[in-house]
């Protein structure tokens, strides 16, 4: 039997409603903040991600699905969206059309990670990107939108963590301080962290090794070496999210190793999904657009993992799905009336009711079982002696009441639907 590839998942009809429920909330919240949707191709030239995410990150270093196509072009299935959005922004000169572009997306992403609960090889993210302003209120907006979406999904066990990375100049001073602090402890670091000590010292904070984290406890923090502008923006950000009623913690360990990430970083963590606990993450990238060949333009954004969020929702039992029952199930009492049933179903569907009937020539009993399984609000019986005298029977499945309706005046049924809802 051919199976789905490890780390990929089918979304079956039984699960689709919770995806749609989440997607509706995502669309709603972004549109209230006036973000416009953007869609980009599933694959891009590999160089885009190598430059936009950074050669030394895990994503580019070991997780990308890259391949040569038949014309020997090196392509990659997108592992994240920011680089693609920035590419589209530059390619279509979106900055010339308006000074600030507020964009959002919902899209599959691909990373060859070791699959486990909450970690897949094809997963889905929604996220926002705002290109064109250094205002810390946009950083606040990112946190506000992601928090709002998670709250609207009914999630409670959430921790918002924020940090600031400053600008490359202040970060450089800090890196030197961190280097001197770790210099005489270097031999105690894990092999990976030893490497990072030389290549990209900030990334030692990402280490999952306990001993590394113990050593870092006493380390100086970036906040102590922050430039005035970054400190001012960080203060404004904290004030803004406080007044939006969002509780947060400062986490100096929330770093990104690359120079085009500047100032704000944030993450929202769930206490209900095990070790892969980050539901979303984001931050400011004032130097990225220039890095990818555009005019110097500031930007800020976030990405959230849908599968992981839905896992948190399931574990918190955070929402119940709205009712998706049928308005009407039509029971066929005589096989030869298929065309009448077809026309009746078409009539109700045209006026926006959800209707189904039997296509398998099943017994009346089996059809009633099906109507019950689909939670039909009404059942319409077509056929038998009644039909011959020009009528059919309608049953309200909730109250049990039955009505006789003339076959040639099916629109009368619409009143019963309305009165019952
Ligand atoms: P990142 O782009 O790595 O900052 O990730 C943003 C969010 O995407 C994370 O907080 C997760 O919710 C989700 N995510 C990242 N990688 C995976 C993965 N391999 N499987 C499922 N979700 C993921």
Fold and architecture overview:
- With 421 residues, the chain is an alpha+beta fold.
- The protein has three domains: 13-167 and 227-316, Bira Bifunctional Protein, Domain 2 (BirA Bifunctional Protein, domain 2, 2-Layer Sandwich); 172-221, no CATH class; 326-420, Rossmann fold.
- It is 39% helix and 21% strand.
- The chain has an eight-stranded mixed β-sheet, sandwiched between helices.
- The longest helix has 20 residues, at 13-32.
- It is elongated and about 95 Å long.
- It starts with 12 loop residues before the first helix and ends with a helix.
Helices and strands, with pairings:
Blueprint: H1 13-32, E1 36-37, E2 43-45, H2 46-53, H3 58-63, E3 66-68, E4 74-77, H4 82-91, H5 94-97, E5 101-110, E6 122-131, H6 136-152, E7 158-164, H7 168-183, H8 191-199, H9 210-216, H10 228-243, E8 249-250, E9 262-270, E10 278-284, H11 288-291, E11 299-305, H12 306-316, E12 328-332, H13 338-350, E13 355-357, H14 364-373, E14 378-382, H15 384-388, E15 391-396, E16 402-406, H16 412-420
Parallel strand pairs: 1-5, 7-8, 12-13, 12-14
Antiparallel strand pairs: 2-4, 3-4, 5-6, 6-11, 7-9, 9-10, 10-11, 14-15, 15-16
Helix pairs in contact: 1-6, 2-4, 6-10
Adenosine monophosphate is lined by residues 80, 111, 113, 118-120, 123, 125, 278-281, 303-305, 307-308.
